[in-house]
Design brief:
The termini are far apart. Helix 2 (40-76) runs antiparallel to helix 5 (150-163). The radius of gyration is 18 Å and the shape is elongated. It has helices at residues 12-33, 40-76, 78-111, 115-147, 150-163, 169-177. With 178 residues, it is mainly α. It has a single domain (12-173), classed as nmb1532 protein domain like (Four Helix Bundle (Hemerythrin (Met), subunit A)), CATH 1.20.120.520. The chain has 6 helices and no strands.
């Protein structure tokens, strides 16, 4: 990358952003299993929360796919190419679990069906996610600080904010601050 005369990315916010999905996806499988038959209020609360957390994660990875990986591979070359491919493989595994979750979630929310399968899919997602986030923090964030400008980094957050339904933003931001 040619020398740029502008600030580079400050990635500290990503560590904070990763705290929320780690915590919430650790809790969700048990929250789903703990909904007792007939407890429609809790069913809806947990279901809405699971849907919200899945959306936040999906938008986060969509933003990385669109705005981060291409720039890193272009600018960091081989230094980023191998790890970016591995990160994309992780994201594909996460996306497969996400797809299963989003297929099971409406059935579970409607009639409390497939709760154990849903909890299992959430656990599968968690396993892939924990590995992915750790590797991202260890390998990708240091490259980001060297090759991505602050303005480009800001666009990543703006993408997620723009795609999140306005009524869901306060909860998403609040969970990220815990």
């Amino acid at each position: 990358m040619a020398q740029v005369n502008e600030p580079m990315a400050d990635v500290r916010d990503m560590f904070l952003a990763h705290t929320m999905p780690r915590r919430e996806f650790r809790l969700l499988p048990q929250l789903v299993r703990d909904v007792t038959p007939g407890d429609l209020e809790r069913l809806e609360t947990v279901g809405a929360h699971a849907e919200h957390i899945c959306l936040v994660l999906h938008l986060h990875h969509e933003g990385e796919d669109l705005l981060l990986w291409p720039l890193l591979v272009e600018r960091a070359g081989e230094e980023a190419a191998g790890i970016a491919r591995l990160m994309e493989e992780h994201q594909a595994a996460i996306e497969r679990a996400y797809k299963e979750i989003t297929e099971l979630l409406p059935q579970w929310r409607a009639a409390a069906q497939h709760g154990l399968r849903l909890a299992g899919a959430l656990s599968t997602l968690l396993t892939a996610l924990v590995e992915h986030l750790a590797l991202e923090e260890k390998e990708i964030l240091p490259l980001t600080e060297r090759f991505i400008t602050a303005a480009e980094w800001k666009r990543l957050g703006e993408h997620g904010m723009a795609q999140t339904p306005p009524e869901a933003l306060p909860q998403a931001l609040g969970m990220g601050m815990l």
